[in-house]
Amino acid sequence: MTDKIQQLNELIEITRDGQRFYQHAHEEVKDVRLQALFRDMAQTKTELIRALSVKVAANQQKPADGGTVVGKLRQVYADTKATLVSDEEGAYVAQLEEAEDRILHAFEAVLKDADPDIHALLATQMPTVRANHDRMRNLKQSMQ
């Protein structure tokens, strides 16, 4: 597996962590507006995973189909924190905002040194990645 395919697969895994976390948070929170937001955010992650997976498959490689240990630990931490604090929604929003930080930084790191082929793909996806990040950051700030 080439370095560029490995990098894309790592982005798929990190993005899948976010997707799964949003789906989980959607099921856990009671606020209908947050449920809708989390569902929308999970959907954007699904679309991003699909775009990255197409590129991996176009290079005759198998796209990653799992997540990361860090992503699972973050979800468990959020669940634990949500049960211990009175602001369950705030606990999920804070952890999801950190997940968005992780996704954004991973994309920026790969984009910085990407070959032209990968750079073009990531450059088209970065506005969505940044918008998702900013959306959760702004939500977290408004809840504080």
UniProtKB/TrEMBL annotation:
Residues 4-113 form the DUF2383 domain. Pfam families: DUF2383. It comes from the Bacteria. This is DUF2383 domain-containing protein. It comes from Pseudomonas guineae.
